[in-house]
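Render this sequence as a predicted structure.
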Amino acid sequence: MKIRLIWAVAALALGTALSSVPAIAQAPPAVLTAQAPDAAATAQSLISLLSSGDYAAARNLYDPANATVTSETLRQTWSDVVAVHGDLQQVGETRTVPLENPVGGTMAIVSAQFANGRRSIYITLNPAGQAVSFDLVEE
């Protein structure tokens, strides 16, 4: 009888402990879903600021801890982009993908039409929604 009581108490304790697991497991997707619209808006703002030449404002969208990104490095990088791909003509659809790594964050993929063709601009954002990097890929 004592063994049955111990098993019943253990099962009850385990069931109570496990009942909170689904709530914990479901929290990250809600956070990622909430970040996605902000990531898309940040990515579009970054591209708009770069293409208009407002490199200081574009720098403000980057992680402040990244000292290698300055207004000047952004100006030079965007100048290199324009030299290869031509002027930015139009920004299209932006989609976001949660990054599956220990740090987290979001990848925003922006479809853009340049004078020399369509490109995808990949912008990596940290979990705080700050830009970390961007790269262009031919579509």
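Summary. Residues 1-36 have pLDDT under 50 and may be disordered. The beta strands are 88-98, 106-114, 117-125, 131-138.
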